Amino acid sequence: MASSLNLFLFFLAILISTSYAQNGLNLPIRKDATTLQYYTTIEMGSTRATVNAVIDLGAQFFWFDCDNYSSSSYVPIPCDSQKCELAKGIGCVGCNMPPRPGCTNNTCGASAYNPFQRVLVSQGFEEDTLYSKDHVKVPQFPYACMNTRFSEGLASGTSGILGLARTEISLHKQVANKFNLPDKFSLCLPSSGLGKLYVGGGSSSKSDVLKSLISTPLIVNPVSTAPAYTVGDPSDEYFINVQSIRVNGQPLSVKSSYFTIDKNGVGGTKISTINNFTALHSSIYKPFTRAFVKAASDMKIRSVDAVAPFRACFSSSTISTTVTGPSVPTIELVLPGNNVSWKIYGANSMFAVNKNVICLAFVDGGSSPRTSIVIGAYQFEDNLLEFDLVSSQLRFSSSLLVQNKTCSRL
């Protein structure tokens, strides 16, 4: 009788897990106040160890610090296997110590990258079960281990990077393949409270926000922007076709070539959750800041001394507050189509460095950056972004504050 009951409960648990999985994977997003990094929480392995991982749109796969990780359900991915080929593994790695996660022989090589240390470490790919707080389990989920000393730079309390790039072993692709769901995910980074990462079909939001989303194509940079790649590989990161920038409705006078991607993969615009603030090519940044300062002055906003890393700062006492944050000139990233743009209001364009000074939250990306515009995470806090890899479209809301909503109130 007890045996039958246990069997029933086992199948019931599978049924519940499968039912939840068909609705996608819902993960919370938190913001670390010190580093301004955004992270989520999952559980891994037989012990369901809690892992807080920084979200990286540009990372090819999931890695975390395994020095204190123990699991009886992990399985190394062998060299020269189909799974290794799928993961684009590089060579083989081994270990002369007792087998454990992160220490196995004849294991598919992974190039784990810490973008905050800018260090690339040769590790091994493994598989284990990933669990979410909403009862979904993702079996045979690929990841790589990282040693503690190579995990520095991550937000306090986090121990890994969760990759959301356009790869076969990213979280969204694995969820889509294992549960027969569309390869889509949505991201809503919080300014405070909890944001949302929803994987497997777009967005979990049932609000009217979805009806107002604007679409623009996701484009592919023909040359990889990864720290390690094979010649001929396209980029796994997310690029959009920003054609120009407007400040208070006035277009900047900037060469159009800076906005396009050339044959060497240089130029264009990508979206990053790792960059805190949007970085602009110097030839865009200089006229951009001049135009913003001029438009701010026309609004009787007083400039003050700059505070690094920002170049344009203002007296907070001369700026009023609106539903969309500080009342400052509106910035628009102009996109293909009839009057299509990503509008950036004060809540996303201004950063308070102290109680008296508030600065334009854009930085100089240098005179020869690989990518002309890197849209930083601060610029899309409380914006809903849906990445649709099926139709290769980005759908975005601009600031939810316009609709009296935030990521924590969707």
TrEMBL record:
Signal peptide segment: 1-21
Where does the Peptidase A1 domain lie?
38-397
Q: What are this entry's molecular-function GO terms?
A: aspartic-type endopeptidase activity
Q: Which UniProt keywords apply?
A: Secreted, Signal
| Predominant location category | secreted
Q: Which top-rank group of organisms is this from?
A: Eukaryota
Q: Name one GO biological process term.
A: proteolysis
SUPFAM superfamilies linked: Acid proteases (SSF50630)
Q: Which Gene3D superfamilies match?
A: Acid Proteases
According to the UniProt record, one GO cellular component term is:
extracellular region
Indicate yes or no for the key word S-adenosyl-L-methionine.
no
Where, subcellularly, is it found? Answer: Secreted, Extracellular space
Indicate yes or no for the key word Cytoplasm. Answer: no
Q: What is the similarity comment for this entry?
A: Belongs to the peptidase A1 family.
Q: What is the official name of this protein in its record?
A: Peptidase A1 domain-containing protein
Q: Which organism is it from?
A: Fraxinus pennsylvanica
